[in-house]
Amino acid sequence: MSYRKAMNVATPHLGKARIGHSACPHDCPSTCALDVEIGADGRIGRVKGSADNSYTAGVVCAKVSRYAERLYHPARLMKPMIRKGEKGGGDWADISWEAALDAVAEAFVRAEQAHGSEAVWPYYYAGTMGLVQRDSIDRLRHAKRYSGFFGSICTNTAWTGFTMGAGTLRGPDPREMATSDCIVIWGTNPVSTQVNVMTHAVKARKERGAPIVVVDVYDNPTMKQADMALKLRPGTDAALACAAMHVAFRDGHADRAYMARYADDPAGLEAHLSTRDPVWAAEITGLTVEEIEAFAALVGRTKRTFFRLGYGFTRGRNGAVSMHAALSLPTVLGSWQYEGGGAFHSNSDIFRLRKSELIGVADPDIRMLDQSQIGRILTGDAVALRHRGPVTAMLIQNTNPANVAPEQRLVKRGFLRDDLFVAVHEQFMTDTARLADVVLPATMFVEHDDIYRGGGQSHILLGPKLVEPPPTVRTNLFVIEELAKRLGVADRPGFGLCEREHITRMLPHYDLDFDGLKEERWIDCQPDFETAHFLKGFNFPDGRFRFRPDWTGTPAPNRPPKSLGAFGPHEALPVFPDYVAVIEVADEAHPFRLATSPARTFLNSSFTEMKSSREREGRPEVMIHPQDAARHGIGEGDVVRLGNDRGDIRLHAKVTEAAKPGVLIAEGIWPNDAHLDGEGINVLTGADPVAPYGGAAFHDNRVWLQKA
């Protein structure tokens, strides 16, 4: 078999225990710098957060600390397999790597011959955040003119809302939280999902007496640590932000001199907010007037307030509006001027990595397909297919759409089509892999070289290969390279390079190559204070923050191409920050709102295979407020049924005041077969486009509830 040794270079140092340095590859903004124990036998042991990295600060989440359990899991995929019986039947035959890759390439050629190149849809996402292993699939896509991939599941709505106000996706150094006099953690549960946020927030509380405010839709582990906890109805964040700005103008906390210099229309905003008072917001959010007044007074009198805005904003149909409203609050207060003040969501725009050779060049005439609408695409929806031909062949890397994508019943129905060929390159037999025709075993992060960037912080980090992989598993890059050879495009730019060469070619701005970055371990890209705090102006031609956003004209990091246009009910988006009910509002037939929030020891569908994580999470449950449970005759542990127009599933009830009346919470994306009927929570979530630039509204669902 043709396999470049350069793609699998290792320095295991057998016979001597050591500490290896790496970066967490998982879909978490923290991108922790890691110290990995490696024994004399070449196997990893405990994984720790690097104390040398000023953001990671020696802390890592519990699930990653136990990574050896995942790496050496007995259920890990170890050899290529081809389906023998019916799709999803679980009957597999072992196959060589050579034969498996031949089968994938032949299926792609057949699909192209029958329906054109767009019949092939390479599909991937953030199962690894390593740029080489994650993004090389795009190089093959572009070289072969396969269908484009519009990634919409995770970031779009929040990123769009932030850039509508600031013009770019960056902000104050997140380490400045430790110097703050007040920290507002809004739309994120970092105790469960970004533990390093809490490292710096708790330091400010201990050393400065800074209160921690948490704004979320249920009493999650972060809210339990809050000094002020604001539990609002899903999708109503903008109403809280507007009321707080109303109070700032009313009570003299608004920094008029700052806005006169840095904002576009403060007078228009003040007039607009004149009717958006705490009484108005209380009716919408479910908070009390007293809670809203207390929050507004706290942030109004505390100039050094750090607003840490999370990815919860991206899970609702009005999430872009909510993010923009929350971002407007520190602008009204002038918080950006102070160390430890302002707002931060992501630093994704600060990393100057050159990826042109890694991903290749897209042809604008090739259709783009929306990742979130995979169910509609695979079941022949003409709009989702952009009124072109069917998708009949797929390669899937780093994601598990049969479990994590919305409209799960459509997704599964599409995968079961007899005329669809699917190859899945994976670490475990996921729900998606079970529906594949060919399954290929993949390496894990300590078994290959890669480079990472930490959107929730400011570092580019190297993840060099630390240990040898099992001899029968292969990297993502290997699969792409081998398919390129079989498909006749291996001579195109970017192919034929190993991981280390790709990494070196991404670093021209830093005067480093792979070996230099390995010695440095990471690069801190945080801009200077004035740039980070927008004291040189926001990223618009006039340097002014936009209280009046151009919802369909402003560039954004993941704006859809012109061929797709604006998404969803964008014409309903407001002129100024406001609450807009472009959400799934509860009605008589569906009286509950459902949020599918992250679990502490899972990460999307990763870590669900680990025994320790399963034991910690227990079983799939839905949180129900005691009032709602009593009204429906539901007791603790009872089996209940949730449903809407997309389908229905059964779960066990968890009766708790952590949920708000009228709101149901289902934590974690459990494997489908962990549920009572073999179907997961995403049966209930929708894939309708989110305004204005797309997204997936996983926390924005109306459902009915009954005792089963």
| Share in helix | 25-40%
Q: Please report the number of helical segments.
A: 24
Give the strand content: 15-25%
Q: What sort of overall outline do the alpha carbons produce when their principal axes are compared?
A: globular
Q: What is the mean predicted local confidence, pLDDT?
A: 96
* Biggest beta-sheet profile: 6 strands, mixed
Query: What's the total number of strands?
Result: 25
Structural class: alpha/beta
Runs with pLDDT <50, length 5+? 1-13
Cofactor: Mo-bis(molybdopterin guanine dinucleotide)
Keywords: Iron, Iron-sulfur, Metal-binding, Molybdenum, Oxidoreductase
Pfam family, one: Molybdopterin
Domain 4Fe-4S Mo/W bis-MGD-type: 17-75
How would you portray this structure in words?
It is a single chain. Helices cover 29% and strands 17% of the residues. It contains 24 helices and 25 strands. It has a six-stranded mixed β-sheet. A six-stranded mixed β-sheet has the order 21-23-22-25-20-24. Residues 1-13 have low confidence and may be disordered. InterPro entries: Asp_de-COase-like_dom_sf (IPR009010), MoPterin_dinucl-bd_dom (IPR006657), Mopterin_OxRdtase (IPR006656), Mopterin_OxRdtase_4Fe-4S_dom (IPR006963), Mopterin_OxRdtase_prok_CS (IPR006655), Prok_Mopterin_Oxidored (IPR050612), YoaE_C (IPR037920).
